[in-house]
Amino acid sequence: MEQKKKIRLSDIAEKLNVSTVTVSKALSNKEGVGDDLRKQIKDLAEELGYKYKKSSASVNAGTTGNIGILIPSRFFSMDSSYYWYLFNHLSTELLKHGFYSIIELITDENEANLDIPKMLLDNKVDGIIILGQIGNKYINSIHSRYDNFILLDFYTEDPNLDSVSNDDYYCSYILTKYVISQGHKKLRFVGTFDATTSIRDRYMGFQKAMHENKLDTSFSEIIDDRDEKGQQIQMNIPQTKAELPDAFICNNDVTASNLMNILESKGFKIPEDVSVTGFDNYLGKNSVSTPLTTVYIKPEDIAKVASDVIIKKINGEPYLKGRHLVGGSIIIRDSVKKQEDL
After folding, report:
1. 176 neighbors 187 (Cβ within 8 angstroms)
2. Residue 56: what pLDDT?
3. Residue 38: CB partners within 8 Å, gap ≥ 6?
4. Residues 6+ apart with CB under 8 A from 30
5. What is the Rg, in whole angstroms, of the alpha carbon atoms belonging to the chain?
6. What is the pLDDT of residues 315-327, one digit of tens each?
7. Which of 223, 215, 232 is nearest to 176 (CA)?
8. Calpha distance 225→202 (Å, rounded)
9. Where are the alpha helices (DSSP H) in 97-188?
10. Would you say 126 and 66 are in contact if contact means Cβ atoms under 8 Å apart?
């Protein structure tokens, strides 16, 4: 016997050419929907067999049409931040589904004091996307009061928290394998290991490729690129050509750009003297003299997955709980050269 298809809010919205937010408001008796349209929506819901509470709305029902984007201020700059770039894609994708985006920055002081975001205190949003690594205590403080949120571009050890992140481990693995395939054997990873889950996963992907190719690498050889607050620091790199590795595998493009500028200021040529790779395919206002080999994970793909998860949580629709990974691919440019050509 064929299983009956489960009716979703989006099915009702599509038939009436309205947003899922409008449907949610109508079914939960919230303001913002005309009486005639509300009746149409409820009648169609009954006709299709959609199950909903006939009384007032639950806490998780959509009520504002807004989704909050919480970003640690240390990671955010309208001039050069990857998260500003990602926010633009997120807001575009959410708007397609009838939701507006509201940014709130979380300062280090807010985090230390476990200050609840103002958008939550003022009931301005139906759900929240926390964009960028933030401490577990702060996340738990929000989670103890509120459930409609997801983590974006990082995750925690708690399997019950929904997150969307890049497939950093595998992408770094295939990037490192590519560099090794070009004849490079002495590689060093650039990125502070404990700064973010993304950097940790990228280093572990690097380690896997090195191990499979029986190449020596040590945790002590990691070159830090930021401090405990995520601020860029002066990188401690080799000073002579004899000390240089064959290639630097950087945790992101901005770090790769900074490293290339330092190397060139010391008279080293890229890739003639040393190869360099990045990650993200995003330089902001940074520039490089040699086009950078990197990993590209489409921000549109990240935005679609994140929007899908948070909207389904808001609407009480079934979704795959836990960690969601978004894959990418290598972009090969001129910053890596075959060892035999050096």
Report:
1. yes
2. 37
3. 26
4. 24, 57, 61, 62, 63
5. 24
6. 888 999 999 999 9
7. 215
8. 14
9. 108-113, 118-121, 136-143, 168-181
10. yes
